[in-house]
Amino acid sequence: MNTLTSWATSAPFADIGPAAAEPVSAGIYAVAPLLVGLPLGSAALLLLLGRRSDRWGHWLGVLASAAAFVVGLLTFLAMLDRDASNRVLDVRVGDWIDAGAFHLSAGMRLDPLSMTFVLLVTFVGTLIHVYSVAYMDHDRDRRRFFAYLNLFVAAMLVLVLADSYLLMFVGWEGVGLASYLLIGFWNHRTPYAVAAKKAFVANRIGDIGLIVALGLMFATFGGVDFTTVLGANMSGVSEATLTGIGLMLLLAACGKSAQFPLQSWLGDAMAGPTPVSALIHAATMVTAGVYLIVRSAPVFDAAPTAQLVVVVVGAITLLFGAIVGCAKDDIKKALAASTMSQIGYMVLAAGLGPVGYAFAIFHLVTHGFFKAGMFLGAGSVMHGMDDQVDMRRFGGLARYMKITYVTFGLGWLAILGVPPFSGFWSKDKIIEAAFIPTDGHTWRAWLFGSVALLGAGITAFYMSRLFFMTFEGERRWSTRTDGSQQHPHEAPALMTWPMIILAIGSAGLGLVLGLGNRFVDWLAPVTGEHEHGEPVLAPGVLVALTLVLVVVGAVLAWRRYAISTVPVIPPVGTALTRAARVDLYQDAVNDALLVEPGQHLTRSLVYVDKTVVDGATVGVGQTTVGLGQLLRKTQTGYVRSYAATMLLGLVVLVATVLVIQS
Amino acid sequence: MSTFTAPHVDWAHLSPVLIVLGAAAIGVLLEAFVPARLRRTVQLSFSLAALAGALIAVAALWSGVKSSGGVHVLGTALVVDGPTLVLQGTIALLAIVALLVVADRTSTGEDAFAPSAASVPGSDYEEAARRLGLQQTEVYPLLLFATGGMLIFPATADLLTLFVALEVLSLPLYLLTGMARRRRLLSQEAAMKYFLLGAFASALMLFGIALVYGYSGSLSYATIASTTANPTGTDSLLLVGAVMLLVGLLFKIGAVPFHAWTPDVYQGAPTPITGFMAACTKVAAFGALLRVVYTVIPGLKWDLDVVMWTVTILTMVVGTVIAMVQTDMKRLLAYSSVAHAGFILTGVVALTPGGVSAVLFYLLVYGAATIGAFGVVWLVRERDADGVVVGEATHLSQWAGLGRRHPWLAGSFALFLLSFAGIPLTAGFVGKFGVFSAAVDGGAWPLALLGVLASAGAAFFYVRIVVLMFFSDAPTEPAAGEPLEPSTQADVVLEGGATPAVATLVAERAPALTTTVVGTEGWATVSIGFCVLVTVLLGVFPTPVLDAIAHMSTFLP
User: Fold this and answer.
1) Pairing, β A89-99 against β A102-110
2) B192–A639: do the CB atoms touch at under 8 Å?
3) Number of inter-chain CB pairs under 8 A, A vs B
């Protein structure tokens, strides 16, 4: 464990900013591009070979992802050998764009932040690949599924390893594409295809933000690589510009990370196969927005207004997701709402500034483990229950699926924030950070701290509800179409082992990384280390308050969903429940505000296009063709007329020259 | 008493020309002495070797000329400088590629040429020659002679050599045009027209040379240039001469209003020869035009701009507009080549150093795509009711659905068309970008603007063919028109004496036969493949070639 300790007890920093990047090219860093190359090559191979690789294609996918993890691990170990202050490295891959004033080389930024993501993505990704081998066993397009998964891993690694915003944008679009393809993997079912389209559109809105931010950065800093933008002297830039960049980046983050007001797609994205929900829509891709904000820390630090908006968005989303999660009966949609809410925590932390960056990423990592584990558990339940997703049709499954029960239970304890499980170490820190006044605004500390605290209580309620409805209480299983009883059974080993490993992570990772502030110190070269004020309530009081709220939430859920009867048909419920069931009318609002006016607008545009634009174009075209027909008549086929034309041309030209000259 | 001093001859710098012309002369002898059975093989390998030798000679001279800037050879008759070598290299390379298509007899076992070009079309003698399987292998030496003339054309340093080179390159082409195996009357009519109009243009040019000589008292470019640098009062003689000189060259590149021969000749000539002619002649003629405009009459720029601008505008507009209404593939490509002549002229008009290298690059990529496109046209044939493969299926409607049945062939054709249209990532885009930006640099932005508009118009008919090939259904039944064999039909029309305008009428003919694609002997595949490669590579990585040309684009005065 000597590496771990050296990692934790790195040289102490005293209020330093992010370290400057050091170019490297030799040793393990030279093979770092393989991180992206391996899964990308595997995806290309699987797609090109087509059905020929059906028999072994999934194992190639697993292998590519695992190999990427090994490369990532070796790079990580090499980085640990370096001094903490020398851990920000640039690997140059080649010249990318060289156009006039715009020079951009493609390269990889290896630093503690990106390495954290690399390890998370490849490790959890590999486990989910293994899980999918069994989960997708009966799908005749399994190979295509693995190709898309590999494509996703490659794109996600491009996103986090890029050394410029433009290259990051490539990965950003790449994960969007992979997500779209995987949500609509069963696109022969119309609702699934519609869900994929919805995710695609919502993401595009966010992408506009990133594109505008790119433009603003280029105009402001003269470049879009991290060194130029983040290393710039922010005091020389007007705060309005920085706020603009920050807000545009936030818009991008909202699209990708399903934050308010662009959150509506995440629930529908559950149409994809469950491993996809686990990998993309819980553990990795949806957290890209948090990565973007933390990566752009210098910009946000210099734009307090943008930071405040980030915090507000995070706070709204964490409550929004939690409320929606209380009313959902579809196990995957409930988990999706929970994901939204947890990312809300991360965004809130990221918006708090230097005090929160490390905790945002910390929570992102622990959340990656426990949420992926729970999604895989949900997949296992669906596997055993004939693809049933309605929790009102579960109940008492603990006896039949012991491994799933235990692993899911560990994830449940982790998300509740029960010590010593993972969530406790990361989420409680966020709550504590939220209670620290920024710029002396005590009201902000009270407001956002209370929201985070309240969210923890609601989280405890809806996650316990989910857990109890599924595993406790009496059986409410539906009968099959042929009238026989369902026989829930444990999933095969290929599915349970990833769940077990993730459960171990859910249980212990927080402790390992959180003790002695190891993780925060590890990230310090990127996030910087800053002195911060004291929370308005003593940390001990906060921990106790949080735990009380969590216990209250869990006990309420226990009374309602474990020991009393859960109706199979959902009761009408209160107005709030009804609203939460339809995502607090998000879709209705979107339809009324955007979709319908948009449709009217497009219809009128189409009309204008057909009559005015097409009319003009067709008119020009017809005139030209008419002219052509006319000119064509000059091509008589007679040599004498050709010669006459030449002579006439010559005479006219000579005459013109002479006239002009004289 | 005068003594004869033998001129100093720099044989090394003449080597590309000498190799090709020497090989052509030997080729004539081969024709007489090699047994008929072996003749084609010997002639073909000999010609390929000669052209490859010329290419190697160009490469050997390259670095020397790059450092020295060039030399005059044979007194002031020829000049070997950067542009000369680039053009000679381009011509030799394109000639090799075109020769491969010429050599391909396809799976039908018949080449593109009449078994005996001297026989009267439709006569018993022709039939007998066909049955005997005679071959007109004189094609190869003729092609070498033409290529030799083309190699001299851009290297000339006095007006007399210019004229001689023009004739050396033109005469074999007149002959080759008239030698098509199918539609022989159309072919002979085209040759006749080409010859008559060519002779007319040559006469105009010669007249122009005489006038320029009368003004300057010299045929040498350098002397003329120094005389015309400061035109005096009596320069209408010079101006008229210069315009007529330009007209001779503009005829060769097919610029409007001196383009009328292009569609008829391109359509009538054997398709592989059309490819050769369209690519190599254009390269040589533009080379000569560049040299004349840049080194002989730059002093007259202000007076002659109106000529060049008018011709450039007319060429772009007329070429594009008439191409839109064509129904015959070869005529369409002919008008497209007219339009391209206009695009290249914008680079010539620019009169900037960048203009030279842009034009040189454009010529290379245009030549490659042209030979490739005509190579594809050569392979797409008609099949008559008995299933016998006959001539090329040149009516546009016969190309419908070709992409479904022959994706590779149609795909390469589509690539060439997209390159013609100047779609990014094809070489044509880089070429167009080069000439138009050179025109803007040279202050001719209206030409560049018009060029972009004309390109957009041209893209319309190129893309229409792509759509036709890939997204239309093939005609299932032959139209119930006259099921006549094309050449017979042409005969009927001509014998009826109603009109000699066969070319136009045949173009209007409704398709009556099914379309098929013949296999190749491999030569055409290599050629088309090479053209695809050039079009893609120069579209994606143009920088090395652009750099190499940019270092070689200074004319020696």
Assistant:
1) antiparallel
2) yes
3) 98
Cα–chain center distance at A208: 16
pTM value is 0.65
Q: Residue A564: which residues within 8 A CB-CB, separation 6 or more?
A: none
CB contact under 8 A, A624 and B244: no
Residues of A in contact with B327 (CB under 8 A): none
Chain B CB within 8 Å of residue A642 CB = yes
What is this model's ipTM? Answer: 0.86
Helix B11-33 crosses helix B82-103 at what angle (to 10 degrees)?
A: 20
- Residue A630: closest C-alpha in chain B: B322
| C-beta separation of B28 from B69 below 8 A | no
Q: Looking at beta carbons, which residues of chain A come within 8 Å of B324?
A: 624-625, 628
- A654 vs B257: CB contact, 8 Å cut-off? no
Quick one: CA dihedral B424, B428, B434, B439, positive or negative?
A: negative
Q: What's at B395, amino acid-wise?
A: H
CA of B4 to nearest chain A CA: how many angstroms apart?
42
Contact B285, B252 (CB under 8 A): yes
**CA distances (Å), origin A334, targets A54, A261, A345, A374, A554:** 34, 19, 17, 11, 16
User: Which residue of chain B comes nearest to A657, CA vs CA?
Assistant: B303
Cα separation, A612 vs B222, in Å, equals 58
B298: tokens are 């730059």
| 605-634 of A, contacting B, C-beta below 8 A | 621, 624-625, 627-629, 631-632, 634
Residue A286 C-alpha, separation from nearest chain B C-alpha, in angstroms: 35
The answer to whether A660 faces chain B, any CB pair under 8 Å, is: yes
Q: Under an 8 A CB cutoff, do A661 and B236 touch? A: yes
Short-list A294, A456, A263, A417, CA closest to A360: A294
Q: Strand pairing partners for B113?
A: B180
- The pLDDT tens digits for B410-436 are 999 999 999 999 988 899 999 999 999
Answer whether B504 sits within 8 Å of A637, measured CB to CB. Answer: yes
Q: Residue B24: which residues within 8 A CB-CB, separation 6 or more?
A: B50, B141, B142, B144, B145, B147, B148
Q: How far apart are CA B349 and CA B362, in angstroms?
A: 14
Q: Are the beta carbons of B139 and B176 closer than 8 angstroms?
A: yes
**Distance (Å) of CA B244 to CA A104, B205, B209, B248, B295:** 52, 5, 8, 6, 17
The torsion of the CA quartet A103, A107, A112, A115, rounded to 10 degrees, works out to 150
Q: What angle do CA B499, B504, B507 make, to 5 degrees?
A: 135
Distance from CA of B544 to the nearest CA of A (A): 15
Whole-number Å distance between alpha carbons of B234 and B219: 19
Kindly list the averaged pLDDT for each block of 10 residues, start to end, along chain A of length 662.
Answer: 40 46 71 85 86 84 90 87 78 70 75 88 90 84 88 90 88 88 80 81 86 88 83 82 90 88 81 81 85 89 89 90 86 88 90 86 90 88 81 80 88 87 86 82 85 89 88 78 75 85 86 81 77 77 88 87 76 76 75 77 82 79 81 82 90 88 76
Q: What is the CA radius of gyration of chain B?
A: 23
Q: Per residue in A405-447, pLDDT tens?
A: 888 889 898 888 888 888 888 888 888 888 888 777 788 888 8
3 state SS of A148? helix
Residue in B257, B457, B500 nearest the CB of A646:
B257
Taking alpha carbons only, the member of A66, A178, A79 closest to residue A123 is A66
**Chain A partners within 8 Å of B311 (Cβ):** 653
Secondary structure (DSSP) of B238-258: HHHHHHHHHHHHHHHHT-TTS
**Rounded (10°) CA dihedral B435, B441, B443, B447:** 20
Q: Which of A621, A645, A650 sits opposite B260 (nearest CB)?
A: A645
